[in-house]
Amino acid sequence: MNMRRTTIKDVAGAAGVGVATVSRVLSGGSASPETRERVLTVAAQLDYRPSALGRNLRQRRSGGIGLLLPDITDTFYGRVADGVLACARSAGEPVIVGATGDDPEREAELIGMLLEQGVDRVIAIPSGDGDSWAPTLRAGVITVFAHRLSAGRDDIPAVVADDRAGVGTAVDYLTGLGHRRIAYLGGPGQAQRLSVFRQALGPLVDEELIVVARGSRDSAYAAAAGLFQHRPDLTAVLAGGNLLGEAAVLAARELDLRIPRDLSLIMFDDVPWAELCSPPLTVIAQPARDIGYRAAELVLRGGARRPRGVLLPTELIVRGSCAARGTSRSPR
Amino acid sequence: MNMRRTTIKDVAGAAGVGVATVSRVLSGGSASPETRERVLTVAAQLDYRPSALGRNLRQRRSGGIGLLLPDITDTFYGRVADGVLACARSAGEPVIVGATGDDPEREAELIGMLLEQGVDRVIAIPSGDGDSWAPTLRAGVITVFAHRLSAGRDDIPAVVADDRAGVGTAVDYLTGLGHRRIAYLGGPGQAQRLSVFRQALGPLVDEELIVVARGSRDSAYAAAAGLFQHRPDLTAVLAGGNLLGEAAVLAARELDLRIPRDLSLIMFDDVPWAELCSPPLTVIAQPARDIGYRAAELVLRGGARRPRGVLLPTELIVRGSCAARGTSRSPR
DNA sequence: CCCGATATTGGATACGTTTTCATGCATCTC
DNA sequence: GAGATGCATGAAAACGTATCCAATATCGGG
Predict the structure, then answer these.
(1) What is the C-alpha separation between A287 and A291, in angstroms, rounded?
(2) Residue A330 predicted with pLDDT over 60
(3) Number of CB pairs < 8 Å for A and B?
(4) Whole-model pTM above 0.90?
(5) Above 80 in pLDDT, residue B71?
């Protein structure tokens, strides 16, 4: 019942050596073959598991990885998390996960929690501005951003999808189909994408057709519905995330807009249900899992030679949610 | 750069009191009002944050919560995780997440990791048999199961959806529509549901119509496609999870089975895309987030008066994926 | 005015580990 | 053969905190 945990001392005693030797053997230090053998045998017999608590205190770091993302419920972030977990598991590191809800205040609070836990590596999909991250840097915590950049924080490496290319090919594809009034339905933290969108669209850009929602489903739906109602003249929309895409499909159905006859839709992020939709959704696939995995690699590799960041490719997957416009001006 | 972290000693020194007093003040112990005031002021000035490392070692527990689930990518588990995170955040507790992939071996490995971390509370959606959990119990770790029970482990409380009622109403609904050949497409860890299904179906049960897939998408698709091909006489299928439902829709489409004309489908778990499907999917909604939240509550409340477990209600949400059979025997 | 009870306080200890340092021993070099 | 070199080893010192315990200050009652 109140059986004390077997400690390194017990192993040392049972093996007739000092605790230092046991520690060395278990951490891969140097030791004579016979000693190593004996220690390992005894440790196995006693089913000894070194306590991370003691080790962490000694080296003043928990060794764990902190992962902060907006919403674990969103499959995109879920896939990112999966990548992080996979990489961390292969390194034997625990991962502490926190959901920020895209709220900078909650984010700051969670950062504080991670620091208190002595986490020395953090992967984040940042919500707030760069200021939130001063504490982690000051505390010497290795920080890597995933999926998003943070305003005014070019000192933190980031692993992101190639939004420039993604938005570019999507816009090219739509204009190539004859679309001229193209809307962008964005979410939080997409400043980068927005500027690329404006740039790619060039003279065609119409600020009224650019609308950003907050992170919630309701907000996304409201933004989509409002956009479609106020500007019935738009012919194509680029949804900046699966939540936005879902909202667009729903709002379009509600307003009796047929996809792709009345409205062409391209959605960022390829999710399984994109194929189940009717029509199946044309999407820009992002390597979500890779983003997480690479970020974890970066953060595990440590501060050694900080790379500037990693850019992963996106891919336009054409399905059935876009139609040509202009030539056949949808008669009737 | 190499600025040492401010410790409780610094605070004690600056406030002119002993470390014990600071510790007491910060842990809510007794202290004179003026001392408390001074200590708090100084602590705030120095931006002191107690190190979880030291505390954990002292009281030989990390205080964190371990969360083990099959696949963080699956929105159902994602919602469970979200509930756990929400509850843990309100308690200020960190959550260490691990993905087992429904592999008992990986599960055991992750359990070992959690124990090594000194986690003293674990929430799990168990994969393996009950044996994996002997170590946590032996180590005095408060363990709670979520969503699933584990074979031969009635000593661990569980928070689950009311599968009995869920399967019951689904089967009743289908038989009420005239269906007689009803299949069950299951996943890992659904022994409980299976037995309920058999029981609810009574004499209509056909063992050949019961097929279980492993956790992967491919496996789910293979199971669905195999089932539909081998038994074209079945008229309805109950999918035991959103992954299985997705596979069923895909396989049906591939084999040119129209839903609901040729095949009625009920899916366990209401996901956002169920409404986006055409036809929209009839589902059995499960309170995934609540399951996680309640499990976290249970585990945080500690061992005090272990309840036998919690049963949360399910709800049949009728949409468009089920049609009547028998009366109008689908002519042509 | 003194004694016992109570509240507050700080010193010391322990938690389990890693790492530094000194020691002993064997081997090598000239 | 003597000194130098290398290696294996164990004692001890942290790491930052919570808590036990003794000591001191405060208070009330007789």
Answers:
(1) 6
(2) no
(3) 145
(4) yes
(5) yes
